[in-house]
From TrEMBL:
<dbReference type="InterPro" id="IPR050109">
    <property type="entry name" value="HTH-type_TetR-like_transc_reg"/>
</dbReference>
<keyword id="KW-0805">Transcription regulation</keyword>
<dbReference type="InterPro" id="IPR009057">
    <property type="entry name" value="Homeodomain-like_sf"/>
</dbReference>
<keyword id="KW-0238">DNA-binding</keyword>
<feature type="domain" description="HTH tetR-type">
    <location>
        <begin position="12"/>
        <end position="72"/>
    </location>
</feature>
<protein>
    <submittedName>
        <fullName>Helix-turn-helix domain-containing protein</fullName>
    </submittedName>
</protein>
<dbReference type="Pfam" id="PF00440">
    <property type="entry name" value="TetR_N"/>
</dbReference>
<keyword id="KW-0804">Transcription</keyword>
<dbReference type="InterPro" id="IPR001647">
    <property type="entry name" value="HTH_TetR"/>
</dbReference>
<feature type="DNA-binding region" description="H-T-H motif">
    <location>
        <begin position="35"/>
        <end position="54"/>
    </location>
</feature>
Length: 217
């Protein structure tokens, strides 16, 4: 009889390979163009094995996104724990968040590209909230940080809290991430291939900061 711990280790390694290979293919060819058969062949596993891990392509797409975000955010958490939110003004936390997206544009374009394609794909595939539980769990740390930032702003008054929290996040943090993703994809009018558009993203960041601090005295 096989050692259960050894068997689990092998299954985890196989799953790790499936997730990594799927991510590479989805970024390179777009999610819509990649079949489960393509992933099975690239990961060197049988189709039946792949479907035992992920019964549908949508489930695999969501698992890949959750895995990639968790790994990226775990790295951020190691460098700056959630408890550090209390140590700096809300405006500094907002700037740090904006700068982290610019860093993603510079150093993690693949994740930005995948996330943009992911949002489009799951919207058109008829996903349900139960399927996104693990994905939303992977974003726990960033959602928590942003909520804590907004709550702190009510006290230190360094950024606006005169509009609802969800609206504030849409027009600041999420707008910045969308801009970085579009620049990473090259979906910007008049842009040149392989040109570094960091300076333009910094300008966008400063415009968003101006909005976030409008009326603050």
């Amino acid at each position: 009889m096989r050692d259960p711990e050894k068997l689990k280790e092998e299954m985890d390694e196989r799953n790790r390979k499936i997730l990594d290979v799927a991510f590479e293919l989805f970024v390179d060819k777009k999610i819509e163009a990649v079949s489960m058969g393509d992933i099975a062949r690239a990961a060197d596993v049988g189709r039946a094995t792949l479907f035992r891990y992920y019964p549908s392509k949508l489930e695999l797409v969501i698992a890949v996104c959750a895995d990639q975000w968790k790994r990226y955010l775990d790295g951020l958490d190691e460098r700056r724990p959630i408890s550090s939110v209390h140590d700096i003004p809300a405006i500094d936390r907002l700037r740090f968040t904006m700068d982290s997206y610019i860093d993603m544009y510079q150093n993690h374009k693949a994740l930005l590209k995948y996330n943009d394609n992911f949002n489009y794909y799951v919207t058109h595939e008829g996903k349900n909230n139960d399927q996104l539980v693990d994905f939303h769990s992977s974003l726990y740390s960033v959602d928590t940080r942003l909520h804590m930032m907004y709550e702190k702003a009510k006290v230190d008054r360094t950024i606006r809290t005169d509009i609802p929290e969800a609206e504030f996040m849409r027009v600041t943090v999420h707008s910045m991430m969308t801009a970085c993703a579009h620049y990473a994809e090259g979906f910007i009018w008049g842009s040149d291939d392989n040109k570094d558009y960091t300076d333009e993203l910094i300008m966008i960041k400063e415009m968003i900061i101006d909005y976030a601090t409008k009326g603050i005295k």
